[in-house]
Structure formats: C-alpha cells, structure tokens
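Milestone M4 deliverable, item 7.
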Amino acid sequence: MDDLSLDQARRVALGAQGFRRRRTAARGDRGHVRRVFDQVQLIQLDSVNVLVRSQELPIWARVGEHDRESLRKLLNAGELFEYWGHEASLIPIADWPLFRWKMLKATQGAMWGQIRMIQEQRPHFVEEIAAVVEERGEVTAGSLREPGDRRTGPWWDLSDAKMALEWLFWCGRITARRTATFERVYLPLRVIPEAVRNVHVTEDDARVELLAKAARALGVATERDLTDYFRLKIPPSRAALRSLEERGDVRRVQVEGWKQPAYLHRDAVVPRRIEACTVLSPFDSLVWERSRVERLWHFRYRIEIYTPAPKRVHGYYVLPFLLGDRLVARVDLKSDRAAGALLVQAAWTEAHAEPVDVAPALATELTELAAWLGLSDVQVKRRGDLAPQLRAAVRVA
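Output delivered:
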C-alpha cells in the first residue's frame, strides 16, 4: 500500500474534479461544458435560486463565463438526461443504461413512501397518467391536476397527478426535462434514443461502472466516498469495488491522517500545483461528502438553509471559496436582481488563512461572478471577520 501526504491527496482530488488548470479567460462554449461532465460525471440539480440555480455554479467554477442556458440546451438536445444519480442530477445520456436497475428496484417499492402509495392505492389512475404523457408527448404536473384533488404536505404540495408522474419518472417509464423556471416537464421514454434504451446492463455490472466513474471523478477516495457519489449502498457495492481492484482501475493507498484506507484511480495524477480561484456551490461534487471535505481540508461545512436564522453560524446560502488547493473562506451570497447587486451577507476566513491575503482574490472572483450574472455591483455587508478587508478589496476590483 502506497502513502499519500494530505497535500498530495488534495491536489489529486482537485485535479480529478477539473481544477488542475486555471479557468479559461475566454467565454466557455458547449465543448467546455461537456468536458466538465467528463470530469465530474454528473451535476446535481437544486431549486434554490437565492444566488443562481445551483447547477450553474459547477460549470462556472471550472469554466468561468459561459452561456447560462448551456445545461438546458444540452438536456433539450438529448445529450443529458435527468435521474436520481446523486439526488436529482443531470447525467450524460450514454449512462442511462447504468440506472435501469435502479428504475427496476423503484417499481418494486424502492422509493419514498408517499410516492409509492399512489401506485399501491390508485394503479389505474397511474396508468391513465402514463397514457396521457404518451399521447401528449409533453406534460407538466399542473396540467394534470384533478379538480378538487387533495394536497399532501406543506413541503411538496403534491397532487395525486404529481405523485403519479414522479412514480413513473422514478421507475424509468417516462423521463423529464426542465423549463427555464425549473419546472419539470415529463416526456415519453421514446425521447431516450433507442440505441441507448436497448443496452442492457446487469445490476452488478452497473455498480462496477458507477464506482469506476466515481473513482475517476474523485481521484482518491474511501469506500464511503465512492459509494456516496452515486448514492450506492456500501454492503452490496463491496464486490464491485473488489472488481475494480482486480481489473486495475484502483489501488489501495493510505492518506496521511485518514483512518480508513483509500483507493487511488489509475488515471489520477498529483499536480505540482493547483491555481484555482472560485466559489463553490453547496451542491458541487467536490464537496458532496462532507466528511471527505473535513478529511482533505479540515473544513467543516454544513448548509444552513433549513437552520432557523438565530441558530445559523455562517449564513443562509454559504459558498466555500477555493484558492489554490485550499478552502480559505466562506461567503453568504445573494443576488438582489431588482437592485442589480451581488450581496455578500457575510464573509469569513478559515483559521489557516489571512484576510489580507484572501480578500483581493475573493473580490476579483465576486466581481467576475456578478458580471456573469448580469449584476453591476458587489455590496459587502459587515458580518464576518473577512468583511472589512473584502469591502476594501471590492472597491479596488
């Protein structure tokens, strides 16, 4: 078993996730966006729009300025599909067969109870909804809501029609795309190319390939890190991990300070240096597994959207700031679209970093981010130890 220092492991992880080289100064195109998927394999979707839709930020972090409609255009062009990868995710269309086993398990009840109940209680209604999707070719949940339909909960406000659509989607009997306002549009399965639908992969083989993709995307990772990437359960995935070792995709290594053994992907490299300078979405694949973030950067990260305001430590929508190969700060950001301003509600420096060193780089990043979002100003409020230096640096930037 080889050893990796913690510094080496950080650089391996960042290189694998697409941070090996500096962001391009030119405007990114679809080729750049496709390259991000080659690196990270999938991008998590999230409806929170306090700054920008979360799925836009992983592209920004690795590419910089680009067409904000790129993901939706690739989805509509059939290059991507949406499914439960790491939560709701956009995934390259070629990987659709790797999720058929999950879809089959969903038909057998492996899904949220509330959605499963619609099939158990109203199977004929579900089939009627399936027929409507097939006939119309494109529907939204709102267009199928029954008069007087009961609602089912304060968080989701799901009608029975919505639950039926979600059951069909989860089972892979229909697929979906998103509107500009993030609403799901449900589509017949025929929009998935026949050549893709006709590829059959067993559950065991799919686990191997999904773990291989996770290992490549992470560079170096523990068993838990690898299985979490595509939300696989650990016990049934151990045989797949052994298969990856046997065929040479990964080898065991010991990372400085890690209690568990790690797996290094055969294509992983240790960059001499990382020159990243970007804020990261709370749902960026680099920081999905919070325990890994702590192991790599000693950075304890929790999103506090659902934490009552008086109990929040850092803020409502807090993004880590990556500078070089370290997470050096965190900022609570909000887009005030009416005022045309990017609001920095709070800014905090990590213990190992100095505000005077971090502020200029972060100011440049926020100024460029604001411009990409069509905002003309960056306003830094007073909360956080980094706020005074950042406010001064923003004036200069």
